[in-house]
């Protein structure tokens, strides 16, 4: 086929049954199911305790729905060839079109899920701590604005790095993303992660609890935040990653 050397054709033909899409599906299924289950438990606990549904619960619902969108998009990319060798996927050019469209949708849902998830945590902190702590209230507003600005920037990159938008899945390929854009957005995302996780720590340490309880509360906040971030972030990272032993996987 055009664009492939004889050696590449021979190698990919001999390994045509290799498919890492199954791993993507397995990872996506486990973490999405865990996130949905956690949300259901959260709402059931609210009902049992007869507590009212708060803003952070609604934001968490939005994040969970968006995560399901990420999961569905990831399944579609696997269906159309993500995880297989390029030569195998190229046997039907429509596969690249479908992968491109699914990846754009995945990116949108990923951004929404990350943003709503962080805003949910911030709304929770605001509800629990800010009435008695001005510093946390200010921190919540700062990181809320920061998170929304990050989301807008990320969505703009998704829609503007390829003009027209159809260049993401069509020919000619007219995408000129600066090499620093995605690493920069990633770093900015990490900054908000760290800031949101650190925000309640000083308040927790000032509570009149025993030291083990204070450490336990800090641990719960940090593990909860990291688990949420990892469960959402690993899906697009997995899709965009190349195999370590072969660079010709989609």
UniProtKB/TrEMBL annotation:
Where are the bilayer-spanning segments? 23-45, 57-82, 102-126, 138-160, 180-199, 219-239
Recorded hits in InterPro entries, A to Z, give: Rhodopsin_dom_fungi, SAT4-like
**Main localization, broad class:** membrane
Keyword terms of this UniProt record: Membrane, Transmembrane, Transmembrane helix
Subcellular location per the Swiss-Prot or TrEMBL entry: Membrane
**Span of domain Rhodopsin:** 41-240
Pfam name, any one: Fung_rhodopsin
* Gene Ontology cellular component terms for the protein in this record: membrane
Topology in membrane: Multi-pass membrane protein
Which family is annotated? Belongs to the SAT4 family.
Q: What is this protein called?
A: Rhodopsin domain-containing protein
Q: Which organism is it from?
A: Pseudopithomyces chartarum
